[in-house]
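Reply to thread "Modeling small-molecule complexes from scratch"

Following up on the discussion above, here's a worked example others can learn from. I took a protein sequence and the SMILES for adenosine-5'-triphosphate and predicted the complex. Inputs first:
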Amino acid sequence: MNTPTIKEQSTYTENGIIYPSKVMLDLNKLKKVYPTPKGEYVVLEDLNLQIMREEFVTIIGHSGCGKTTMLSMIAGLNPISGGNISVLGNPVKGPGPDRGVIFQSPSLMPWMTALQNVMLGVDQVFSHATKVQRRDIAKYYLHKVGLEGAFHKKAIELSQGMQQRVGIARAFAIKPKVLLLDEPFGMLDSLTRGELQDILIEIWNKEKITAVMITHDVDEAIFLADRVIMMTSGPKAKIGDVLNINFERPRTRKDVLEHPDYYQYRKHLIDFLEH
Ligand SMILES: Nc1ncnc2c1ncn2[C@@H]1O[C@H](COP(=O)(O)OP(=O)(O)OP(=O)(O)O)[C@@H](O)[C@H]1O
């Protein structure tokens, strides 16, 4: 009998290409320079980060350090000044359906229904599927975010929290390899924020899409993540520290808050941000 070697088990094959299994997203010596009237501003320099398959990482750092810049470069929406970014070994050269983005404001088409908004992405990515199959995908994710009663409501008629639910459904529905979230709950009240964190993590527990989420909320960073990545303050920001969150999954907010390690984690992050 052929027993798989450790090497075989630790690789991942897609389209006939073998990749190191664990690395989904690789940021290598990443640099970003913005031209400004006063000269060049080096936001990020020598930033190295590897994010694994099925990993959920949260990113924290002071305002203006370059978190959105980094995420938008991963999304392919912001040109890279130096170094490189790759997804499963493929260099990022622009936006693509392998990366789904959830922004702070979901930017839905206001005159379109919740279903039509989700269908926009699904139609593009699954153009080979039938109309019924595409509708089923969109409906499945709208159901998952608790909007089964609002398929046909126009986006403009939805509350901010409901709009962000559509944003979450839209991102998951295109089945990306990497989900990029830029403070997706930053504009919501704390109750809605908690509800949407629960919805996000419930879908994620099932789909395990590699996720990278920026947040300013230390508790959110701990609750959702396998690792919290701390960025140094700019200019020339890089990764300053990394905290592994060893809580079991699936986890509930109650489990996390009652865990003896919770306050150690919290203290670690707050100490980093205060120094
Ligand atoms: N297009 C641009 N041109 C020039 N400077 C820019 C541009 N976009 C961002 N910056 C500057 O780059 C720095 C990093 O901005 P960025 O939005 O990435 O930070 P951030 O960490 O996401 O901030 P926040 O937490 O406040 O959202 C800031 O000083 C910002 O003013």
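What I'd highlight from this example: The longest helix spans residues 190-207. Residues 34, 36, 41, 43, 61, 63-69, 234 surround adenosine-5'-triphosphate (CB under 6 Å). Questions welcome below.
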